[in-house]
């Protein structure tokens, strides 16, 4: 049986003003709405292609006919590295683990920019698992 994984991309959902505490320096600020958003190398089509080639549908989820959308939130750092990967909408523990694994394995992105300077930014990425 051939597997199908549908990946919807919902990039940079505005959540308000940049998140920062008084003790954080401005250089560690996480931008919710940077002037230039971070991007996967090659753009959204390349991201969809990369995810579809690297996601492995968990056997337990396949056996139990579990499908759905896992929503993952992460930070693209100033150097393009992915950090702080977290599931914000869970479907099944096996699907959640696979979504986190594949996001952590992504190549470095082109970082977001604000006033011409690379900044940290938050992304939300829905990943649909469908057999």
Secondary-structure blueprint:
Elements: E1 4-7, E2 30-31, H1 44-54, H2 59-63, E3 68-76, E4 82-89, H3 93-104, E5 112-114, E6 117-130
Task: Tell me briefly what this model is.
The chain is α+β, with helices and mostly antiparallel strands and 131 residues long. 21% of the residues lie in helices and 31% in strands.
Helix segment tally: 3
Distance between the termini: 9 Å
Share of helical residues: 10-25%
Average pLDDT over all residues: 85
- SSE string, helices as H and strands as E: EEHHEEHEE
Low-pLDDT segments, ≥5 res: 8-24
Return Rg in Å.
16 Å
Residues in β-strands, percent:
25-35%
Secondary structure category = alpha+beta
The biggest beta sheet is recorded as: 6 strands, mixed
- How many extended strands? 6
**Envelope shape:** elongated
Structure commentary:
With 131 residues, this protein is an alpha+beta fold. It contains three helices and six strands. Strands 1, 2, 3, 4, 5 and 6 form a six-stranded mixed beta sheet that branches. A hairpin with a 2-residue loop joins strand 5 and strand 6. The longest helix has 12 residues. The protein is elongated and about 50 Å long. It starts with a strand and ends with a strand. About 13% of the residues have low confidence.
């Amino acid at each position: 049986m051939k597997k199908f994984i549908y990946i919807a991309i919902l990039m940079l959902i505005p959540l308000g003003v940049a998140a920062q505490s008084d003790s954080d320096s401005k250089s560690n600020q996480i931008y919710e709405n940077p002037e230039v958003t971070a991007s996967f190398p090659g753009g959204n089509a390349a991201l969809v292609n990369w995810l579809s080639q690297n996601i492995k549908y968990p056997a337990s989820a396949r056996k139990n006919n579990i499908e759905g959308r896992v929503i993952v939130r992460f930070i693209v750092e100033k150097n393009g590295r992915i950090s702080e990967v977290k599931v914000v909408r869970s479907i099944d523990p096996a699907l959640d683990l696979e979504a986190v694994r594949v996001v952590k394995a992504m190549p470095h992105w082109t970082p977001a920019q604000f006033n011409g300077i690379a900044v940290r930014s938050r992304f939300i990425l829905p990943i649909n698992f469908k057999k």
